[in-house]
Amino acid sequence: MDLVFSERSRKIEEGIFVILNEKKEALLKEGRNVYNFSIGTPDFKVPGHIMEAMQEACKEPENYKYSITDRPVMLEAVQEFYKNRFGVEVKTSQIMSMYGSQEGMAHIAVALCDPGDIVLVPNPGYPVFGIGPELMGAKAVTYPLYKENHFLPDFDDIPEETAKAAKYMIISYPANPVTSVADDDFYEKAIAFAKKYNVVLLHDNAYADLVYGGRQGRSFLEYPGAMDVGVEFYSMSKSYNMTGMRISFAIGNEKVIEAFRKVRSQIDYGIFLPIQYAVAAALNGPQDHVQEQARQYEERSRTLTRGLTRIGWEIPDGEATMFVWAPIPKNYTSCETFALELAERTGVVVVPGTAFGDLGEGYVRFALVYPVEMIEKAIRAIAESGMLDV
Ligand SMILES: Cc1ncc(COP(=O)(O)O)c(C=O)c1O
Question: Does the beta carbon of 126 sit less than 6 angstroms from any atom of ligand 1?
Answer without folding.
Answer: yes
